Amino acid sequence: MTSNSCGTSRLAGCQFTLFPMSDKFVDIILGALEEVDTSKVWKDTDDVSTCVRGKMVHVFDVTKALFLHAAKTGEHVAMSGTFSIGCPGDTEADSYMDEADAPVNETKLNELYRKAGCKFSLYPMGRADYMEAIYEQIDLSKHRNVEVSADHYATRLDGDVKAIFEALHQSFDSVQEKVSHVTMSFTISANSPSNKA
Amino acid sequence: MTSNSCGTSRLAGCQFTLFPMSDKFVDIILGALEEVDTSKVWKDTDDVSTCVRGKMVHVFDVTKALFLHAAKTGEHVAMSGTFSIGCPGDTEADSYMDEADAPVNETKLNELYRKAGCKFSLYPMGRADYMEAIYEQIDLSKHRNVEVSADHYATRLDGDVKAIFEALHQSFDSVQEKVSHVTMSFTISANSPSNKA
């Protein structure tokens, strides 16, 4: 069941939803989509969520860019979703695995800074020692440019949106090096009126 | 590490966020909270999410009631979160385990119907045979009052909000009977302008 997990680059994906807490939610979502280059990922959207699949670097590049372009509007926006890699049976869209590694949305994000709060949970699948992998990862994330705190069922990260996605990406990447099938759920929120920080 | 998983009733919890896609998001959230009896669960809220913990029946009762009371406003609302049970180390709030089993929000929901779409993923932790538990569950959900379809990394449910939460609850419950630590991520959406159904 883990025969898809070999090779130098593995198919990753993310099912996510962007939530602008605004009457202009359609414009904010479409506006963010217009700013983001999604050509390096397979993409499908319905009324509940969007799924992107391809190389891990591009999956994180696209989700980060969509959130940041939506957050720069100043409206209260959030994004929830689940990253996945090594899911048995996830074999379509392999053509996107030939894309070059350079993330295409980074340049446009260089000047954009926005504070956010994020809660995420890592799930290394099929392993009796999964809690060790989780604890190890929570510990590692302390060394990144984000404030790390513990919550029930989740780890909280606070800081700049790009630094948060960097920490998510690194955590996910380092666990998937050891565990074939890993999922990671997250909720990130910016411009919340409840955040006094 | 699974010493907390014994007993007739186990501590369950959910980290979730309610997302009203409306300028009135604060009023919709506070309005829903006012309608919902949360006295049978431990509850904590910050700017990113809300965590409720207690008996499984009350955790599902409260999340379902909050979503349905927000959805009845007719505004486009969504909720994302992760249910968890049997998490090693989750030991606080045990006092809430003495609450009677009767869900306190059901009567108020009796007359409320609202169509929604939901995607969820079940993660039985620490087991090499986790995929079987997932496939079995996806199959079971076909027999409930919801339309079931497959998606990448998730199962989609369509139908009445109460029937969807019922299916989520039953899926989660039946897997946790076999597996000590189970998590389940979900996103449910109602009144979306993209849903032509």
UniProtKB/TrEMBL annotation, chains A, B:
InterPro entries registered for this protein in UniProt: HMP/thiamine-bd, MTH1187/YkoF-like, Thiamin/HMP-bd_put_YkoF
Ranges for domain Thiamin/hydroxymethyl pyrimidine-binding YkoF putative: 12-90, 116-195
Residues involved in thiamine binding: 18, 50
Highest taxon above the source species: Bacteria
GO molecular function: thiamine binding
Entries under SUPFAM superfamilies matching the protein: MTH1187/YkoF-like
Pfam family, one: Ykof
Protein name (Swiss-Prot/TrEMBL): Thiamine-binding protein
Native source organism of the sequence: Lentibacillus amyloliquefaciens
